[in-house]
Task: structure prediction
Amino acid sequence: MRRQWANKNVNLTLLSGCLERFFKKKGFETGVEEPHTGRRRISVTSPDSAVLGEKIYVEIVGNLGSLSIELEIGSGSRWTLMSSLLALFGGGGIVLRKLKAQEALAKLEKEFWAYVEELVAGSSETS
Result:
């Protein structure tokens, strides 16, 4: 999911630091790449990949007073098809764990966007 804001001049270094802290407080490990000026990519991993098992990326792009943030969470579409087969062959425990992980990711995404909106609204503090 991507969100954009116009007329926001935000310090990307400070913003990416705030977003990293958000994930670290939740027990995730992060890494930041700066492929070129005006763009940062944060990779987020769970220390226990069996819990979530999805890759999470946050891409922040800021230029000329505009800001764009994209949250990319690995797709579980293949899992939906396989979950029926696993349940059929006695893999119900695995299906349950995966469903709980998807629920946790949905909650994380909701909390992330609420946090981002709060940060961007107070962008004078991150400028």
Q: What stands out?
A: The mean pLDDT is 79. The chain has four helices and five strands. Helices lie at 12-25, 77-88, 92-121, 123-126. The longest strand covers residues 29-36.
